[in-house]
## 1
Amino acid sequence: MQRNHPPPLIPIMQNPSDLADRVDHARSLLSQMRLFSEPAPKATRQVLERLKSKGPIKKTSSKTLSHPDAKASPDASSPSQKEATQSQGDSFSTASLSKEERKARLAALREEVLVCTKCPHLVASRTNVVFGEGNPDADLMFIGEAPGADEDAQGKPFVGRAGQLLTKIIEAMGLRRDEIYIANILKCRPDMPDGKSGNRKPRPEEMATCIPWLKQQIALIQPKALVALGATAAEGLLGGGPLVMRDMRSRWHAFEQIPVMVTYHPAYLLRNQSLSEKRKVWEDMLLVMEHLRIPISKKQRSFFLSK
């Protein structure tokens, strides 16, 4: 329907005392207002109601606008958004990486660690940096405190007597060593004073310097559980100290939301070979197996129990 254009407004009279002119002027204004008082089109009313329900309009970049019925796509992020996510560093999730991608990233990280010189006194005394080894897609990760003489010589973790016992523990769990991952808090063997042999406990400042390397390993591997071997490894992972093993073991702790079981170091069992001490470690491993839903046989449950 063709709409008539409203007549021009009658100017307000210069003489306000002229009542008749003022009445005519008011009638003219009312007639013009009626021309624009028809109901708004349906689409317009819907938009107005939507705006009322949503409150104030927020300013949105034209790059993020889309049709109201369009479904969000997982790849819809702009390059700038993706870069912002990745710029968070260690905090971004690596859960979606394939095993080959994890392996490649661990290899690249290993190359960085092998040339680390953050602790000059350890660089001067070490033979090899002991980065760690195992399955880059492992559900379970064992963490020791530092390399010993055998590990320093071979550049591999837990290859001495304590390492051989750890391998037996892993196999008793029904796993293979190449199915899990093994690393240390410290990547270099702690140096010893001249004329002294053996191993010393890593110092807090040494562990604080080296722990970022381990954090990157854990972030890449994304294990479902960590086992801290010994109080020193627990101190390095969980902070605080000195920790008392009897207060720490047989219950779950957390390292950056990953469950941590603290147990005795295999070297402790080499010095204390009673069934009761072996049973303590095995009870901790049973808890780990239950957490990872590894089947446990009746025979396994009875390991190291007194006959």
## 2
Amino acid sequence: MIAFYHLPGLFEFYTFYEKFLPLYRRHREWFYDWIEIGSIYGAPSGCFWAGGRVEESDTDPRKVLALTQQYGISARLTFSNSLLRQEHLSDPGCNSICRIFHRKENGIIITSDLLLSYMREKYPDYYYVSSTTKVLTDFEIFRKELAREEFRYVVPDFRLNKAISQLNALPPSQKGKVEFLCNECCWIGCRDRKRCYEAVSLRNLGEESVPTFHCSAPGAERGYRFSSAMKNPAFISADDIRNTYLPMGFSNFKIEGRGLGSALLLEFTLYYMTKPEDQIAVREEMYLDNTLDLF
């Protein structure tokens, strides 16, 4: 069984993928033979429909589409703004992006049912992913989301990652729809996650007058640390994927990382995708220079 990774930064990490994807194809032997890239997800700058993160990128969407098509990778538009209103649906910029990427192999990550209805009518060729920004922490509600025919995949809240007995009891058809968020650093006891996502949605709508959301979770002032994410009780490691989740019938795994920088994205691809003995070779190909001084 193959693990399909869904990687971050469709637009903001274009230059990273422009270099990484040829390397991945040219030296496939450096990477685990039980993994594939399922999709790359993200949204362009200034996108009203975007959610989850505020992204910054001026990359030409047509170049992004051409790169994903060249390597046969699904491009997913992250339209997970949870606070959209009817007047936002006619936004010319968002609709222009939709027209450019409108292909059967491409998907939409979505939260708003209002936007979902609009998209299914106007852009019928996309497939749809139920976003983790819905914060589905109740397993029965998650099960109902899996039963919705509109969605090809459903990303539960990371706190359901280790509900092993309940996950294993799902029928194979629903297991195929589950997409786990593997490397979340957020405090597992956080009760403000939905409010945090709503604050991002408001920022993407350009409502700058809204007070900034301040996370009060332990260690929040340090920002994202992969070392901290690895200690999270809900963390899904590469070994977990291969030895636990794949044998159970799960094959889709999302890696977060939008807004974190390409150096950290490289660490994610090294950890989850690259054989340990070949990680230095990938690093050298990607960014090492014998004359480079970091400090």
## 3
Amino acid sequence: MFLLNASGCLDALVAPELAVRLDAFVTKTVTPEPREGNAPPRIAETEAGMLNSIGLANPGREAFVQQVLPRLREVLTTPIWVSVGGFSSDDYALVCASLPPDVAVVELNLSCPNVDEAPATAAEIVAASRAATTLPLYAKLSPHAWDVGEMVRAVEAAGADGISLVNTLRGLTLDAQLTPTLARGAGGYSGPALLPVALAAVHAARRATSLPIVGMGGVANGRDVLAMVACGATHVALGTVLFTDPDAPQRVRRELDDAVRAAGHASINDAFCAAHADVVSSVN
């Protein structure tokens, strides 16, 4: 099992000492052209998490490949996963085609709640990306889908090599004057309260596919990681917790060992799909 960061929740160039504690690093989402993102304010705390409306701020594919990626290689020895976004299937394909062969995985951000979504379906975007690159493709899916299993089967048929879920939920908070706190209004909600939603999505996804799954959403401790694996996650990503606890990767690993023993298992592998009483699988 890999322990990763959720895209956008860690900048390895700002906090390399934290990034190197993970088994792989996931970049912020890269789009074809540079984006300044949404107007501020674009981050707000809530009682059980946070809202963000960053809007995919990034330097664009050319600057990322020529400037950012070489710097990441200097500070990281772990695999680099690149998150890719856009506003059409052609956008995704363009970024995918620009990435060098040493990128470990391309994570297609198909579910950002802070920008206008591409009119193409998730499967169409995966298919276009698959035609543009031979790199492994993971489809990052939304928790808003009514039938997660159906969406998973669709992106797998289109060429996805793995699944990441869940992205943030759309949420809104108000200030003292009862106006939206974020300039955009709604934003992406993340934090501990997202965990049950994420577990349900991972459980449904595992019922639909044998592909590797990165489970994320509300993971804050070792028991949460164990729950993700029990629901069918192959790997687990930390998100909001990285903003508040720079020791999170090491702490979570210590807690995971204790949680595995408390659950009566010899190793984390033994807990894989434990929540699927009628499913027999093995860790990929």
